[in-house]
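Form 7-S
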Amino acid sequence: MRAAPLLPLLLAACATGPADLPARLLAVDAAERAAVGVPPLRWDPALAAEADRWARRLAATGRLAHEPGIGDGENRRGENLWTGTRGAYTVESMARAWAAEGAAFRAGARDLARTGHYTQMVWRGTEALGCALASGAADVLVCRYSPPGNSAGRAPF
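Output:
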């Protein structure tokens, strides 16, 4: 018996949202990463579980904020957040909003306010991604990246 057909079901169990959420988000990330010559990410169920916990909290409270301490210590993570009208956006359009920041990216410039989501997506040293989608008054997408990107003094790719 092959375990591969069960993989999408196992991955979906670790994240809120549609069962094909991992494949759909990995595809958006892979396209952006390929465009700058960096390898695709692998899905990490543990990151997805972390993202799920935080996405549910944000959706329940109606606020959008990075999890305190997410970028600190030995267990650092990168984190991209998105929120919008409930049911109005696909997960691809959510992730493409981060990717669109690439139009403002200039090599050598450090402007995380304008391009930080994009540079996290394409960060060469990042290897794994886990995301979750939760709904409250709005939809909230949380993606976690490991190792994190956006390190001071380093180019993303």
